[in-house]
Amino acid sequence: MNSQWNSLSSIVQVDDIKSKISNEKSVVIFKHSTTCSISAIAKSRLEDLEINDSFDFYYLDLLSYREVSNYVADAFEVVHESPQILVIKDQECTYENSHLGIDIANLASQI
């Protein structure tokens, strides 16, 4: 995990993202499966993402935190996929992509 990424491991954090943090700045959530080769490719693509003050980046190990992963899908009304990237702005998911569709260029244009 990139040292600039916040670990997403609780439902309380998801509620904070939805009710407070996403109203102040964009939030990126990366849902990662540690046993999936496609997820590993997506993760390596995101390793070079430059984190700045305009957004927060959260990493969710969905195998360790399956309940949190399911809650993210429900809270932001998206179908669960793995790997998956979400951009949250003003309490809503404004961008979602999965599998090999995850790349820095697409993500950067949405933040």
Model description:
The structure is a single chain. The chain has 111 residues and is α/β, with parallel strands linked by helices. It is 37% helix and 26% strand. The chain has 4 helices and 5 strands. It has a 5-stranded mixed sheet, sandwiched between helices. α1 crosses α3. The relative contact order is 0.24.
Brief rundown of the structure:
This protein has 111 residues and is of the alpha/beta class.
Task: Considering the chains and any ligands shown, give keywords for the structure.
111 residues; alpha/beta; 5-stranded mixed sheet; 4 helices; 26% strand
Secondary-structure blueprint:
Layout: E1 6-7, H1 11-24, E2 26-32, H2 37-46, E3 55-61, H3 66-75, E4 84-89, E5 92-98, H4 104-110
Parallel strand pairs: 1-3, 2-3
Antiparallel strand pairs: 2-4, 4-5
Distance between the termini: 20 Å
CATH superfamily: Glutaredoxin
Given as residue ranges, the uncertain stretches (5+ residues, pLDDT < 50) are none
- Count of strand segments: 5
Report strand order across the widest sheet.
Answer: 1-3-2-4-5
**What is the H/E order?**
EHEHEHEEH
Roughly what percent helix? Answer: 25-40%
What gross morphology would you assign? globular
* Average pLDDT score: 92
Give the CATH topology.
Glutaredoxin
What is the CA-atom radius of gyration, in angstroms? 12 Å
Total of DSSP H or I helical runs spanning 4+ residues: 4
CATH architecture, please?
3-Layer(aba) Sandwich
- Helix and strand content put the structural class at alpha/beta
CATH class: Alpha Beta
Strand content: 25-35%
The biggest beta sheet reads: 5 strands, mixed
Quickly count the domains.
Answer: 1
